């Protein structure tokens, strides 16, 4: 997948493309409907190179529900050939008509556009689907507006996903996403308390700007290289032993090995219990082992997501 990250890198595209437009800050079921539409043949059977125009961070400024690396990985997996992933600041002051005519039609050579019905663009978000339709008609570009995807009678949205994650309702977040919520982060050194308890863990720092799951313990799937291991993941500040930052601390009972400095992908499956302070390390160890048994049962009912 070819990735364009700045306007300076934005050269004239040689091949016409079928382009999905949107912030795509969650790549949830609704977003993926737009992406898949761009990858599908056009109304008259045309097949253009599938592309996405989006932003590295959400224009709304809300917390992210997936890392930039995971966003790129998922898009590549769907078959996207070119990803325009710019900083919103680079184009925020462009007038809507100029942005579409010069960038989308001109530089990107888009011959078919796909977006959601609430798509906005241009200075002050003045551009809407009605304006985009007029611009497409003038340029002879086809436009497909994807109807909203619903779950439980409500529209799927990143706002609903953030709220579900923050409340610890991971099953709901996973249904809205169409995949397990998770993150791929580097393993860092911790205080090694888990090793002494016989439950050696990996520590990953939750990055600034990423949605914070409800503090507590979760059942999880962990992808190490090409293998999956069930895990029990604590998200929070480890009140029993203390931490100066928010960490995801995961024990994989069936894994042995050194993962420091490597990236491990964690998928949360279900909330097990709130984070709390234990009277002793022995009490903590007993509870972790109990949680691991619970996590194993939950993971056995869930198919890992690559």
Structural description of this entry:
The protein has 306 residues and is of the alpha/beta class. The chain has 8 helices and 14 strands. The protein has helices spanning 29-39, 68-78, 96-107, 129-139, 158-166, 170-177, 193-197, 281-300; strands at 2-4, 17-21, 49-55, 82-86, 110-116, 142-146, 150-151, 154-155, 182-186, 201-205, 216-224, 227-236, 247-251, 263-274. It has a 6-stranded parallel sheet, with helices on both faces. Helix 3 crosses helix 4. The chain is elongated. The protein starts with a strand and ends in a 6-residue tail after the last helix. The mean pLDDT is 90.
H/E element order: EEHEHEHEHEEEHHEHEEEEEH
Helix content: 25-40%
Sheet-strand content, in percent, reads 25-35%
Major beta sheet summary: 6 strands, parallel
Mean pLDDT: 90
| Class by SSE composition | alpha/beta
Which segments are poorly predicted (pLDDT under 50) over 5 or more consecutive residues?
Answer: none
- What is the CA–CA distance across the termini? 18 Å
- Count of helical regions: 8
Say how many strands there are.
14
Strands of the widest sheet, in order across it, are 1-4-3-2-5-6
Shape: elongated
Indicate the radius of gyration in whole angstroms.
Answer: 22 Å
